[in-house]
Design goal:
The chain has helices at about 5-10, 15-40, 40-55, 70-85, 95-100, 110-130, 135-145, 150-155, 160-190. By secondary structure, it is an all-alpha fold.
Length: about 190
């Protein structure tokens, strides 16, 4: 029996501290994913909190056919998508990241290299934010969170073939947007 299964059993038996251990184990990963979907740290915190409360309330409905994290992830991801649909227009991921001060710093980096890396990160975040919701979801889950195709399919309730297709299209669109950004910067540099 896995650690998660034991903690779930203990929670269902009335030991709510066990669910607290699950929260500590997964809340940061959930926040990271939700943040990339909604682009605003405060909203991401609220959505993760809401998802964790929902998971606690619905824990007895967890059928254990998948990993607990996949089930929890799906709850959080669906809450994030619902939030995004209610909240249009979408916030800038760049502005949110900068305002939240979530960029890691490395003291040993050359300042020029650090600045260049930060600029590339801003470009990628901006390009991801411009993707359609369906494409952004698969890119975030695969490239940022490192989920396998099966997990993505389960979280998004899609066939694996659709996940592969959307991921392929998302990567092509991402590459196209990044190329456009690079071309625009070259034009600006000449002016």
């Amino acid at each position: 029996m896995s650690d998660d299964a034991q903690l779930i059993d203990q929670t269902l038996a009335g030991r709510s501290e066990a669910f607290g251990e699950l929260v500590l184990k997964y809340q940061d990963r959930l926040f990271n994913t939700v943040f990339h979907v909604v682009g605003h740290a405060e909203d991401a915190r609220d959505i993760v909190q809401e998802a964790l409360v929902q998971a606690f309330i619905k824990l007895e409905t967890f059928r254990r056919q998948s990993e607990f994290y996949t089930w929890l992830y799906r709850i959080a991801f669906n809450a994030a998508i619902s939030h995004q649909r209610r909240r249009r227009p979408m916030a800038s991921i760049d502005r949110a990241r900068e305002n939240a001060n979530l960029e890691p710093t490395d003291e040993e980096d050359d300042p020029a290299e650090s600045l260049e890396r930060k600029e590339r990160c801003r470009w990628v975040r901006r390009a991801i934010a411009q993707l359609a919701e369906d494409y952004r979801a698969v890119i975030v889950l695969r490239e940022i969170d490192g989920c396998c195709y099966e997990t993505i399919a389960e979280v998004l309730d899609l066939p694996i073939g659709t996940v592969r297709s959307r991921l392929h299209r998302a990567r092509l669109q991402l590459k196209e947007r990044l190329s456009e950004m690079l071309a625009a910067e070259k034009v600006e540099d000449r002016d």
